[in-house]
Each structure stands twice: as C-alpha cells, then as structure tokens.
Amino acid sequence: MLDRVMAAAPPPAVKGPQVDAVGLGIAFDPQQPFSTDACAHILMGLEALDGSKPICLLDLNGEAALLGQAAQRLSGRTVSYIAVGLEGIKRRTNGPERNFSDAAYSAVVALCRPSEAYRMARFIADHFRDPGPIVLPFLAQAQGGAFATSIALGANDAIITATVPGAGSKRFIPVFQALMWMYGYDQHHFPQPCFNTRYIDSVVDPGRRIDGINLDPAQCVIPETIGEDYFAAVASRLDRGEWVEFHHPVRTRFLADLGGTKSVYLYRDPRDIITTHYHRIKYDTGAGGFDAMKRLSDEDLFIQIMRGYEYIQPQRDYYARGMALDTFVAQFVDIAACDTVYGLRFEDIRYQPRAAYRALIDWLGLSGADLVPTNDDALDRLIHLGSFAHQSGGKIEEGRDATHIYNDGSPAIARGLRRGIAGDWQNHFTPKVSRVFKDMAGDALVALGYEADLDW
User: Fold this and answer.
1) Which terminus of the chain is more exposed, N or C, with fewer CB under 10 A?
2) Dist. CA 57–CA 85, nearest whole Å
C-alpha cells in the first residue's frame, strides 16, 4: 500500500531520538524489490562503508537471499546475513545468550520494503548494541544517489488501548493496529481473562456461586475491579514498542498507575453503549445462558443493563460482568484527570477521523517520526480499514436498520457490526429508560459534553 520511493522531507517541528542512516536512493520495484540491478547497487554501496568491522544484512522477509550469498562471496569482508522474519529476530535478540545483535558493525543494512523501513530502523536502534549507521537501500533524496542523514524515531513507550464493549472497538482497532504497525509497534496478544478458565475458577468465582446469570446488583459475586491483577501482569511483560488491547471496562486510574505505559481509552456516548449492549443480549443466538434477560421486556432489559448483571457459562469457560452504568461512565469522566490516559471519542473517529487520529498520533509522541507517510491519502487508506464496507466485503452498510447482529447471515468477520452511527439510542430509549439513565449518569453525561443539561 505504501511501497514507493520516499523522498526526504523537511524535518518536522518535533523530532524523537535520532539515529544515523545512509540512503542509497535505489528505485523500488514492488514486484521484484531485490532484482539483480538493485542488488548490484546495494553491493556497490557496501563497498563504500568502513571495512574495519563486519556488516550485518538484516533481511526482514527473506527476499534478498541471493544478495546475502553474493555479499558474503564477493565483498571480501565479514558479512552476517540474517533472514528469519521480524518475530524470529525479536525472539533471538530477547534471550540472555549473546547473538548477532551484540556485535559491533560498520553498518546494519535493512533489507526491507520502503513501507517497512521505519519499523526496521527503530528495531535496529532498540535491539543492536553497536549497529553503526542503518543503511536503507530505497531511501532517496530528490536528486537521488547515496547520502548520509539522520532519522527521527518517535517515542516507543508501551501502549495500552482500553475498549469498553459496545464503544466501537471494531471501527477503532483495525485502524489503530495498522497505525501501530507503521510506527514499528507490535501487538502483544494474550487470552482475555473472561476466556481464561483457570482465572475464572481460581479468582472470579472460586466458590462456584454462579452458573448462569445473576441479575441482582446488590448481591454481586464478581468484584468491580475484576481482571486488574491479570491486566497488570500483562502490562508488566510489555516491551517498549509493543501495544495491547484490554477489551474490558477497566478503571481509568488503574491504567494511569501502570508505569512505563501510555493508555488510549476509547469511549462513546454511554446511551449508545447501552443500546448496543441491549441488541447484543437480545439478538445474540451464540451465547447461552442469557435467557432470563431475553425474556424481559425491551424497557426492562435496558434498565437491567444499566443496573448491571454478572454471568458465568455453566461450562465455566467465560464470564461477563455487566458493569453498572454509573460505574463505567465514571471511568470516562476520570480520563481528564489522568495525564497518561488519552480519551478517544468514538464520535470523533466516526465523523472526523483524520483530525482525531492526527491528534492521537501527536499525543503518543509519534508525529515527529521520519519515514512514516502521514498525508491525507495514506491516512484515509488506514481509516477505511475500520469501515463496515471493508470489514464486511461490502455486504453491510453503515447506518442500516440492523437489529440482528449475530443471526443475520453476516460474514464471520462482520459479526457484531450493527449500525456504526452516533445517536441510535434515540430510536430505542423510552421516557422511563431516559429517567433511569439520568438518575444514574445524567450529570456525568453533561460532564462528558454529550448534553448541555438534563433536558433531553
């Protein structure tokens, strides 16, 4: 998508840490990036490097094996050719034993496509002890040819995204995932605690008091802070330059207290979160055990969701704590008081996504990074990844009157896509539901800027 020769741009106003680099100015052919001609030009560039130390050829995708063989045979100097894929390279450089990243090099040559140059440069800067300058074959200046420069690397603190179910994570996460890849971040995957049988039996409900649903919020078994020790353990294992998603209504101050991380908290008009939650319980045919809630009237189901509930499957391989409305809305209000937590509104990424994502990139300290195209066309291509059209292959239209979100014949990737708009609560709230909402979270709704007062 972004493979092209990248012309050097004027330095941004804010720059991150600098690394020395050499661009060779080789024209990039996406069909055959390491052609005979390109390899010959790279070999010529290597001849100009300091010959007192070895050269490391770091081949990200294994596309330059012939170049590696030729460099070792023809250069008359020590050449280390490493082709194992970035995940394999990371595993090999994270262990305690000495490895190729500990050696001193005249240069490390990043054999990768232009769209991968930034993440490779940051990886080399983070993991190599004495890499020398980083050689980027396809980095070019306007006049072409080899040139020395420095590259700004954006901040790479570990990043956490907190996404409350129903807040719009299906629109946000695909875009954020692509953005993070561009900026050299890798996603840390882990089993969410609600699917961890051992965690359920040992921590959530060791007394086995719940098998099914509990609708009495005054007799809760699952604590409000459930999962925080689990999430804290996950956060402690994050490397710099990794990000992770907590798809759970965690406390904002819990996120703020996680050292060495920045957190992005996705939130939305709580009335729309409740509306999405209503549809998922009412129409989800895949999850058993919600029959008691499905039998409620529409009005009573809305009110029960706002008051909270808890659920553990009889097989004890899944739990859910429907956090009470006033509790989870308070987390959104708390964002403003936490410097290391960024509040990202669904409505902004839905209706003004360019501005919303640019502001997020600035807050994360990545706007000063070189080699990452951030023009409107590049950003729009990433934003499209979060659209219904992309995720459903054009089969689901945003804003349609969709009520059946799991049994409507949607493709598997689109399961859970419903309407994707703001304000749908107005089509479902009754006066009684609105009164209960105002009693529980009306003032918080005003504090969040979704209403000017309680007259709605």
Assistant:
1) N
2) 13
